[in-house]
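Narrative summary of target 7.
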Amino acid sequence: MPHVPPHPHPVRRFLRRLLVGFVLMGFLVVGGTAFRVWQVARVDDRDRADVVVVLGAAQYAGKPSKVLEARLRQAKSLYEQGVAEYIVTGGGRRAGDRFTEAEAGRRWLVDRGVPEDRVITVGEGNDTLGTLKAVAVEVKDRGWETAVIVSDPWHSLRARTMAEDAGLDAWTSPTHSGPIVQTRETQARYILRETAALLYYRATNASADGIAIDQEVG
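Modeled conformation, tokenized:
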């Protein structure tokens, strides 16, 4: 009689299928999140809002980094188009800094013609989550609730998610210039980084800005 190989042990077969299922599920979750990061990055929503919120990035002695300057240019454009009557600049200071990211942003905007009484600084938070929580408190204390979030394209989904979790009705109008959007290689790196950061946030409700790719992005 021909030799018939023994059937795999039922427990081993179950564990093997379970492992394959977990791997496939992981690919679907990571791939789906990466697609949403890419998808939301392409959305430039300029619907009328109470405020435009500029998320902070590195500044040097009060001068915005190229990343922060690109965000400020976008916010100024939205203000001039009448998307909102006020701009909120967010971001705290790091050890040794004389200025907060919010102050550096305010100075840049005022120096370029935005009225001082139309720029609100919220100089708190050393990461996206901390800044948006502080911004949400300030915005809601003024009786407002809607906000257009300005950041880098790949940061948009995570920033919007955090803003909504903080109680704001938020949408995004990302930058279209600056070092983060210059090359496909850079874009791919930031999509991967934001995918990991968003998954971490959804799992822990904590910030993951510590895995920044460079020093200019906070």
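The mean pLDDT is 86.
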